[in-house]
């Protein structure tokens, strides 16, 4: 029962950490209370993308004639099968994690973990039996859950979180989505595409509020065109679930109104899973619901580490994975580079997709940069035109003095697969002119990045 490293939680932070630890020669165990792969794989990132794929294929069927194909008469779907496919994808991926654990000789311990003093962990299995394990290094990667607001208590039936939204027994005719971050917008897009009447309520002035304002405004127009009703500068003050559906009292600039729907999805962020895990007893410090760590992810107690959504850093799967790898490589004594949290890509997989990295134009101006900004519309892209989807643009932001690539913001089909170019280029300190002179293949949508950079320097060809 003694290990070099014990990882608590098997999400994209935990399982990646365990694999890297094993690769480095550590005797490793991972503890999981539910399903390997955690929330992201089972109830988040992966199954939502499966749902969205079904919705986008359905949309293509409805527009077959636009591609010179015979019209599909009354294209329809079986909602339960759409959900079933999504769950099947998650199950398959979870099985893949199980294979990786065996391949890397990682012991999988099923149960609920609680850290104890003396570098020990107590694990209670489904039968209530507790077993104690010890390790030189304990890495906590317990992730997060849907955040509940006091005025929006989730009953799992009429007021739901993302987990229930992935597995509804039947399609609602109408839905209110509270919050327009990635989770809210993706579910709004999915259900709207399948025919549910969707209303999005956002407290901030713009949807996807962390994005560049140009992107937020463009996405709002696109979603409204698709039939989604969007209310910004609005907040749900209370809900009434006593009737057949939900009545939401919404505060707006023009006064309070009542929205009615079958279901309300609360997508107002996440809450870290830090309760009841022994942190207080061990002495692990937290602040504002997050665990405090040093630059190498060690907590206030030596030998105990934390990564992923329980930290104040960006709550993204790829961030959790990177933090875990960095943590175990530092434990091993390797020369490790600290994570640059200013170069983390963010992606939203609605239609059109959103992807970004670095500073927004507003942030760059607030930091005192003199800017060169370039935008290239996908309507001028040959590949996007051939694809039949020209909704969107690429926007790049450079420091006028040194040519540093400060930010890249995209909206359009497939941009989540394009943003990595900007991430790598920024990592390598590439300048605007180097992007312009890097020959991009034609015809591709990725040419829009080169064209946007050229637009920033007054050298754009195709607009």
UniProtKB/TrEMBL annotation:
Its main location: cytoplasm. The keyword Heme does not apply. Its cofactor is FAD. It holds the Pfam family Pyr_redox_2. Keywords: Cytoplasm, Disulfide bond, FAD, Flavoprotein, NAD, Nucleotide-binding, Oxidoreductase, Redox-active center. Residues 344-453 form the Pyridine nucleotide-disulphide oxidoreductase dimerisation domain. Residues 3-324 form the FAD/NAD(P)-binding domain. Disulfide bonds join 40-45. Binds 1 FAD per subunit. FAD binds at residues 49, 309. GO terms for molecular function: dihydrolipoyl dehydrogenase (NADH) activity; flavin adenine dinucleotide binding. NAD(+) binds at residues 179-186, 202, 269. SUPFAM superfamilies: FAD/NAD(P)-binding domain (SSF51905), FAD/NAD-linked reductases, dimerisation (C-terminal) domain (SSF55424). It catalyses: N(6)-[(R)-dihydrolipoyl]-L-lysyl-[protein] + NAD(+) = N(6)-[(R)-lipoyl]-L-lysyl-[protein] + NADH + H(+). It comes from the Bacteria. GO terms for cellular component: cytoplasm. It is found in: Cytoplasm. The keyword GTP-binding does not apply. The active site is at 442 (proton acceptor). Belongs to the class-I pyridine nucleotide-disulfide oxidoreductase family. NCBIfam families: lipoamide_DH. The active site is a redox-active disulfide bond. This is Dihydrolipoyl dehydrogenase.
């Amino acid at each position: 029962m003694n290990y070099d490293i014990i990882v608590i939680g098997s999400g994209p932070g935990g399982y990646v950490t365990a694999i890297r630890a094993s690769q480095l020669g550590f005797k490793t165990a991972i503890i999981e209370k539910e399903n390997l792969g955690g929330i992201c794989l089972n109830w988040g990132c992966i199954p939502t993308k499966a749902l969205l794929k079904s919705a986008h294929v359905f949309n293509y069927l409805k527009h077959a004639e636009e591609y010179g194909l015979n019209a599909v008469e009354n294209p329809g779907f079986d909602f339960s099968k759409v959900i079933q496919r999504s769950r099947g994808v998650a199950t398959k991926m979870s099985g893949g994690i199980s294979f990786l654990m065996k391949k890397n000789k990682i012991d999988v311990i099923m149960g609920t973990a609680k850290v104890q003093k003396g570098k020990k962990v107590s694990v209670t299995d489904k039968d209530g039996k507790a077993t104690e394990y010890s390790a030189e290094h304990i890495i906590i990667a317990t992730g997060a859950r849907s955040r509940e607001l006091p005025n929006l208590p989730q009953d799992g039936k009429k007021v739901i979180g993302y987990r229930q939204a992935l597995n509804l027994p039947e399609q609602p005719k109408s839905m209110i989505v509270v919050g327009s971050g990635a989770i809210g917008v993706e579910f709004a897009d999915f259900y709207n595409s399948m025919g549910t009447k969707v209303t999005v309520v956002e407290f901030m002035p713009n949807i996807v509020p962390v994005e560049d304002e140009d992107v937020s405004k463009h996405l709002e127009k696109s979603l409204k065109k698709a039939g989604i009703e969007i209310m910004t500068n609005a907040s749900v003050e209370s809900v009434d679930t006593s009737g057949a559906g939900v009545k939401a009292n919404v505060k707006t600039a023009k006064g309070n109104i009542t929205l009615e729907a079958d279901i309300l999805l609360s997508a107002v962020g996440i809450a870290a899973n830090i309760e009841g895990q022994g942190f207080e007893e061990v002495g692990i410090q937290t602040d504002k619901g997050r665990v405090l760590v040093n630059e190498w992810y060690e907590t206030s107690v030596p030998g105990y580490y934390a990564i992923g959504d329980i930290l104040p850093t960006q709550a993204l799967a790829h961030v959790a994975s990177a933090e875990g790898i960095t943590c175990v490589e530092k434990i091993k004594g390797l020369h490790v580079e600290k994570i640059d949290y200013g170069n983390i890509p963010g992606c939203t997989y609605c239609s059109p997709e959103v992807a970004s990295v670095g500073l927004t134009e507003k942030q760059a101006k607030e930091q005192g940069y003199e800017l060169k900004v370039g935008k290239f519309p996908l309507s001028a892209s040959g590949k996007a035109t051939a694809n039949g989807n020209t909704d969107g643009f690429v926007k790049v932001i450079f420091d006028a003095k040194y040519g540093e690539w400060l930010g890249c913001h995209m909206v359009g089909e497939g941009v989540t697969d394009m943003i990595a170019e900007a991430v790598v280029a920024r990592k390598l300190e590439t300048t605007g002119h180097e992007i312009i002179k890097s020959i991009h293949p034609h015809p591709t949508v990725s040419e829009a990045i080169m064209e946007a950079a050229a637009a920033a320097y007054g050298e754009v060809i195709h607009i």
